From TrEMBL:
Quaternary structure and interacting proteins, as annotated: Homotetramer.
Catalyses which reaction(s): (S)-lactate + 2 Fe(III)-[cytochrome c] = 2 Fe(II)-[cytochrome c] + pyruvate + 2 H(+)
Species of the source: Ganoderma sinense ZZ0214-1
Residues of the full protein shown: 110 to 483 of 487
UniProt-annotated stretches for the region Disordered: 178-197
Primary residence: mitochondrion
Protein name: L-lactate dehydrogenase (cytochrome)
C-alpha cells in the first residue's frame, strides 16, 4: 500500500510482515521463550491512565527536546538494532537519512550491517548527531579499538549494552533456517530429520547467538565503566538496566544516562516491562532523575506511550523494531513517516493533556491502574 495509507506504527508492522523474508521477519520480530515480556512491554502502557488538565493554552505546542544536549524534534530516538540490511539493501543508511530529515537521532548498533564509516557518510549534514551502541568484546584491546574508531568518525555518545552478555533464547529465530530448508525440500524424498542433526552448533545459536559470541560476560561496575571513561570523554549511557538498585549505582558511577530496557523482550524472559521499571524508579528514587538522563525502550508504539514515559520523568524514549520495519517496507521515506505519525500523536496528546511543552508533562498526570471488580 502507498505510504499515505499507513496510519499507525501497527500498520507498518503488518506491512513489514508481508514484505520481509521469512528469516528477516523471524529475526526482527522474535523474542525470548514464550515472548511474554515482549508482549507485555506494549501491554503495560495500557495499565497507565491520564489525569489531563484543561483550560490551558496549547495552540503553540512544542514536542521538541534535547537528548544528551543534542536537539531532537520529538522525544524519540532510534534504538540500535542489528542487521538492517536483512530487510532492505540500503539498511542502516535508510535510517540515517530518514532520521536526518525528521530531526531525530539514530543509535547505531555494534552489529550494524553497514560499516560505521558508511553510516557516518550517509548523514545528510556533517553535524547530524549519531549515537553508538557498544557490545563490549571480551578482549579490552579489541573493544577499545572499536570505541576509538567511532570517536574518530565523529559519533557523539556511547550506549553500552549490558543486558545481552549471552543471547536470549529466541526459538523462532533459531528455527527459521530449518523451516526454510524444509520449504525448499518440499516434495523431495530427503530425510529432513537426518539433515537437521548435522547442523553445526553455530546454527543452533540463531542469528542472535552468533552476533554476541565474543562478548564480555564479566563486565562490572568497578572495572568496565572506569575503563570506558578512560577511553572517551563522550557521554556514556548504560543500555539494558532493569532495576532501581542498578539505576542508583549508575548515578554513583557518574554515567550520563541510563536506558531502562529489556532489549525488546529478547533477553531475559519475565523481565519487567520498561514502563513499570520507570514507574518504580520515579516513585522510589526521584533523586536519580536529577543526576542523569533516563530513557526507556520496548513496546513503544503510540504517542501516548511516549507521553506516559515523559510524565514519569523519562527524557526520551527509544524504538527498535518500528524503524527496522519502516525502512524494510519503504526505505528512508518509511522512517520519516513513522516520525511524522508519532509527532502528530504526541502533539495531539499534549494538547488534550494540557501541556504545551515537554517540561509540562509531570507525574501528577499519570496513574497506574489495577483493575478491580466493583
Ligand atoms: C535489537 N536490540 C539491540 N540492542 C542492542 O543493544 N544491540 C543490538 O545490536 C540490538 N539488535 C537488535 C536487533 C533486533 C532485530 C531487535 C528487534 C532489537 C534491542 C533494541 O535496541 C531495543 O532495545 C528494542 O528493539 C526495543 O524494543 P522495541 O521497540 O523493538 O519493542
Amino acid at each position: 500500500p502507498p505510504l499515505s495509507r499507513v496510519l499507525s506504527l501497527w500498520d507498518i508492522e503488518d506491512i513489514a510482515h508481508e514484505v520481509l523474508s521469512h528469516k528477516a521477519w523471524a529475526y526482527y520480530s522474535s523474542a525470548a521463550d514464550e515472548e511474554l515480556t515482549n508482549d507485555e512491554n506494549a501491554r503495560a502502557f495500557s495499565r497507565i491512565f491520564f489525569h489531563p488538565r484543561v483550560l490551558r493554552e496549547v495552540s503553540n505546542c512544542d514536542p521538541s527536546t534535547t537528548i544528551l544536549g543534542f536537539k531532537s524534534s520529538i522525544p524519540v530516538f532510534v534504538s540500535g538494532a542489528a542487521l538492517a540490511r536483512l530487510g532492505h539493501p540500503l539498511g542502516e543508511a535508510n535510517i540515517t537519512r530518514g532520521a536526518s530529515r525528521a530531526g531525530i537521532i539514530q543509535m547505531v548498533s555494534s552489529n550494524a550491517s553497514l560499516s560505521y564509516a558508511q553510516i557516518a557518510e550517509a548523514r545528510l549534514t556533517p553535524d547530524q548527531p549519531l549515537f553508538f551502541q557498544l557490545y563490549k568484546h571480551r578482549d579490552d584491546k579489541i573493544a577499545e579499538q572499536r570505541v576509538r574508531e567511532v570517536i574518530a568518525l565523529g559519533y557523539n555518545a556511547i550506549f553500552l549494552t549490558v543486558d545481552a552478555i549471552v543471547a536470549g533464547n529466541r526459538e523462532r529465530d533459531v528455527r527459521a533456517p530449518f523451516e526454510l530448508e524444509e520449504q525448499e525440500r518440499e516434495g523431495s524424498e530427503d530425510d529432513v530429520q537426518g539433515d537437521r542433526s548435522e547442523k553445526n552448533e553455530a546454527d543452533l545459536l540463531g542469528t542472535a547467538g552468533a552476533l554476541v559470541a565474543n562478548d564480555d560476560l564479566d563486565m562490572t561496575w568497578e572495572r568496565t565503566i572506569p575503563w570506558l571513561r578512560s577511553i572517551t570523554k563522550l557521554p556514556i549511557v548504560i543500555k539494558g538496566l532493569q532495576s532501581v538498585e542498578d539505576a542508583v549505582l549508575a548515578a554513583e558511577a557518574g554515567v550520563d544516562g541510563i536506558l531502562l530496557s529489556n532489549h525488546g523482550g529478547r533477553q531475559l524472559e519475565y523481565s519487567l516491562p520498561c514502563i513499570d521499571v520507570l514507574y518504580r524508579l520515579r516513585k522510589q528514587r526521584p533523586d536519580v532523575f536529577d543526576k542523569l538522563e533516563v530513557y526507556i525502550d520496548g513496546g513503544i508504539r503510540r504517542g501516548t506511550d511516549v507521553l506516559k514515559a515523559l510524565c514519569l520523568g523519562a527524557k526520551a524514549v527509544g524504538l527498535g523494531r518500528p524503524f527496522l520495519y519502516a525502512q524494510s517496507a519503504y526505505g528512508e521515506d518509511g522512517v520519516v513517516k513513522i516520525v511524522d505519525i508519532l509527532q502528530r500523536e504526541i502533539v495531539r496528546g499534549m494538547r488534550l493533556l494540557g501541556a504545551s511543552k515537554v517540561q509540562e508533562l509531570v507525574p501528577e498526570m499519570v496513574e497506574q491502574v489495577n483493575w478491580q471488580p466493583l
